[in-house]
Structure formats: structure tokens, C-alpha cells
Amino acid sequence: MSAAERGRVRGRPLRGAHWGSAPDPAPQTPEGLDVARRGRTARRRRTVRRGWVAGLVVAGLVAATGCSSDQPGKPDGPKPTAYKEGTLRVLASSELADMKPVLEQAKKATGVTVELTSSGTLDAVDQVASGKADGKYDAIWLSSNDYLRLRPEAAGKLANETPVMSSPVAIGVKPEALTRLGWQPEAVTWSKVHEAVAAGKLMYGMTDPVRSNSGFSALVSVASGLSGAQAALTDADVKAAQPKLKEFFSGQKLTSGSSGWLASAYAKRGDVDALVNYESVLLSMNRDSKTNLQVIRPLDGVVTAHYPLTLLTSAPAGARDSGRTLTDYLRGAQAQKAITEQTFRRPVASGVSPAAGLGAEKRRELPFPGSRAVADGLLASYENELRRPSRTVYVLDTSGSMAEEDRIGRLKSALTDLTGTGTSETGHRFRDREEVTLLSFGSKVKSIHPYVVEPGKQAASLDAIRADIKGLKPDGGTAVYSSLEAAYQHIGKGGADAFTSIVLMTDGENTEGVGAKHFDSFYAGLPEAQKNTPVFAVLFGDSDRKELTHITELTGGRLFDATEGNGSLDGAFEEIRGYQ
Which residues, 6+ apart, have CB-to-CB distance to 198 below 8 Å? Predict the structure, then answer.
């Protein structure tokens, strides 16, 4: 299957509609719905998953009890149970965590208990497409079902879909940047944004289009706006816009696999003027994080998510009844008012006004790619040509304890999966132009080997990385902090025009070399540009959670849990790819 099959969430109303107008209130039966595939681990991806990659964000989401987790590859909330009358088991996009209060009110009003399991979008659609969701879930609730239409064979899995709310892509700009640029918010277009970026006057953050729903919607918005396409994007449109797109993405200084981490990273950085994301996310940031962004809906058009609640054909009759009851409630005036006021998404029911801060001006719905091949080409171009390249140092624990339970074998397997092949689909291997450095350590740093995946010579570059991985051997103690210092020193020797990050994998606590206080002092003395390099740490084996949490919080990174029962090592490495 092609890269397009990874399922791109596209949130598009009927052609000619605007996000300011209400969709048809009747449930819509989709024609030719398609479900993209996503392997649960990198090893499974080699044989199962191909194509578009989107929405690999994970956040807690439970309707009745509510809990959250930041663990990659592990669905949050309670495990789905056997069907019970009056209960609806829903596999949902992770950003719907903010719907918990509305669903609690829905339970009181309708008697329907919603068991929401949060998942990365592609994991969700893979379960539906493969039939694994049959009997396990009664419905799915993603930001959009448009990407499902690319594979007609999945149409029989979905009973019907009903839009519940909407949110367009927007750009949030710091007030001081707005003043500096002389922009009038209501007159800003994607072309104006491009001009500011090309002139070096605007730096921004955006989620990864290959893994994030909002990121891909932003990519399509920009490509459509800069190409001037009046219908579904074609190869010719993308080719015509490519020079401007390259200039546009030169201003992207933050990337992320999730909107939540992007917001945190933005707060830490002083050199980022704006964020591109869903309007609802940006407004929620203003309320919850006091970011004070001016939210702009570009005048020349947007891409919109409509969050359809979709029943599965495999659901029992009672569950389908519960689904219809819930949908009717959520589209009612009381729930629609609560949704827009609490989440800043736009109501889809007539007669309900959008929350304060949601402008009433209509915007054209920008066209999506007209075929799987066009979208695949757009994503591949972004990954390997348009975006700034990545520089990543993998700090790898090869101490003696890694010999236990074949931990070293699992590490080698997970890293080898990331090399893919020179012809791997988009998002399935290290990117072209990416600098990958393997730093192995035990009692001290053992070796530092940098590699660059050179365009046109990908196979040779990836073979060299695989050979280095194969040679990793476990022995010695565990010098975590000394090795991190060496990684930062290596990062400091390179150029600044790249997304830089450090990935730390250790199966134990620090036993050799310098300690935490020395590292803290070392980090505090780094130049500001180097401080912007986050550490993404992987909890594995017997590693110290407190120690790794301190490292990630200090550097603005994130902790990924690959311990027994919480995830896999290859799954953690794959999840991290969205942040590099």
C-alpha cells in the first residue's frame, strides 16, 4: 500500500460549504469510506502499515471516570469491556479529552454511559479496517472521516456518521509580532504569512503532518493557499507551489507529534512568534496557559475538522440505539452550547451561537488532494525536501545490564526498524538529509558515530547505520549524565538550521561519571540555542523514572514509557519520530 493509506484526517464539509454554516443535521451515510492502516509497533509496520501517517498523539480520555496517560502506544482509559445495555464503547481521537464534562452531562440526560478509549488516529482506523474493532468498540469518533473514503473496501465497517462540532485550522500570533508585521487580523492570508516567513520576520511551530491531524490539515491549507488551487489539489498544483512551500517551512522552528507538547515547547521558547493548529486548540491555550495569541483564520481559506460520531456496523442493536440517542443529545442546543463554550469548537446545530472569540466571518474550505498519489507526494516532499532537516543524537545504554532478558536485542531491533530501506514509504525510515548520531555508553561514552541520510544515496547511509547498530555490545556501568553532556557537546558542533533533539534510552539509573547536579549546572551554562534541544527519554527495564523525568522537564522534552505492560521499545522510538 502507498503512503497515502496511512489515513489523513481532513475535516472537510461538503464542497462549497463554509465552516461558518451548519452542516445538514441528518446523519450521513458515507460512500466509499476508507480506513488507513497503522501497525502497533515498528516491526509490524514493516509488513502491515504503509501510506499516510497521521494523528499519533496519545492523551487520556475516559467519559465516566477520566484518567490520562502520556505513554506512547498505549490506549488511555479503561480497557473496553463486553457490551452492556446502555453503554457505548467508543474509540476516539485523543484531543477529545476535553469532552469529558459534556459526556458526563450526556449520561445524566440520556442514561447512556460512554466508555471512551483514547488512541492515535491511525491505530484507531487500523483496528477498524482490520476488523479488530468488531465486538470491541461500538463507534469511532475522530476529527474527520474524509480520509476513510480513499479505500472503498472499508465502507462496510461504518454504519453512519454525524458531525458533532467543527474547528478550522488557524494561526495564533503573538501580539508583539502582529504589531511588528503591521497585520490586520481579518485581512491576513496564507500568502502574507509566507511573505513574512520568507523575509525572516516570522518563526512558528506546527505539528508533524506525517503523524498529526492538525499538522496535515495545516500542510494542505498552506499548499492550497500558496498554489491558488480552485479545486482538489493536483500534482501540478503542488509542484507549482513547491518553491514557496520550501520558503514557508524554513520558518518552522518547532515540530511535534502532539498539540499538547507543542504548546509546552512554545511556552519554553522565546524565538517562536506563532503556532499553526486548530482554532480550538489555540483558543484553549489562551484560556488555560495564558498565551495571549491572536487567533487568525486566513482570509483565503481553511481546512476544517468536523468530528463525526460514527457507529460501526458490528455494534449490537442496543449500542446503535445508544449511539443515536447520544448523537441527538450532542447536537441539541444545550450540549452544543456547552461544547462551544468549553472547547471552543464551533456548533453544527442551527440556532446556537459560537463561543466568544470565534469570529462569524465565513471562510472558503480549501481543497484537499484529489488522489492518494497526490497526497502521498505532498507528504513525501514535506518530509524529505520542504521541512528543515533533523539532527538527532541517540544516547544508547549498552551497559552490562542490557544483556539481561535480551534487552540489547530489543534495542537493536527497535533501532533497525527506524532505518527502513532506501525506498521505504513516507514516515517509515530516517528522513533524507537527516543527521543520525549513535552515541553508545556504558561506564563512559564508548563511541560517537554520526551519519547523514544523503538524498540519492539513502541505501548506503541506512546500511551504515544498521551495521553500527548490529555491533552494539553490552558491558560496563551506566554513565547517563556524562553521556548526555557529550551529546549536547556534539549537537553544538553542528549548524543551527535543523530540528535538533536527543533521544536517551537507558535500562538503569546513573552509576558512573558525573551526577545530576553536575549535569544541571552544565545545561544551565549552555548557549540559549543549545538549550532548545530537548531530551526525549525512554523508560525501559529498570531505569529510574524520577531521574528521567527530571532530565526531560529540565530540557523541555518528554518521557516515553516502554516498560513491561506500558508499551514497546520500538513503539516508543516510533512515537518520538513525530517530535524530531
Answer: 244, 247, 248, 250, 251
